[in-house]
Amino acid sequence: MSDDATRPAPDGDRVPLEPPSAADSVGAALGNAARRAGLDPAAHGSTGAAVWSAMGGVRGILESVLPSLAFVVLFTLTIDPETRQGNLWLSLGVSVGLAVVFTLARLIAKSPPSAAIGGLLATAGAAVLALVTGRGQDNFVFGFFTNGAYGTAFLVSALIGWPLIGLAAGYLLGEGTRWRTDRRKRLAYTWLSLAWAALFAARLIVQLPLYFAGDVTALGTLKIVMGLPLFAPMLAVTWLVVRSLSPRRES
Hints:
It holds the Pfam family DUF3159. The chain is mostly helical.
């Protein structure tokens, strides 16, 4: 066994290090994802700067909003009164085309393309599903599964006493899972995780009836309204609470 996997023992021998717990591994994964998204307490001194970085700035906002907005506008303008369906090929083609442009722009600028590539794959996959079924509302199906998965993860983590916000914050602030011994922090992280679960649940509660009703225009509009406009304030509140509980702030 290599020295990297051992530690000194009192008698001078070396004994194996304990493997990281599942909570530490999850916290590290979440913390690294948050850091890649721009949420690093050591890098931002203000809430506005942190939220702006997490959204990707102007480019990130355009990448998030424009493909969906283009689809909704073009689909609505080309709706046939008899079939109540718009021109899927045109609206989906422009939507996917914009996602391709954003991805190529990141590659040319040699900036991290992961967000744009993820958006491109999601947009293209949703477009294929909508074209196969011939129903515009199916362009939003993948979003329902994403919101359901995220909402369930936040809810379950809070209910079992290991809120995801706490795991990520503990990693970013260098305190691991010690926050669980502090009742104030544990409650704060639990309520924050429940708030995120409520956000994802609200999207499903509002948007699913519109999906089953086949109202593509209203569904697409509410998807945009309940996207960044709700994400940014929730992220700001989360950041403020986590920073207020930071060990460095306490010291």
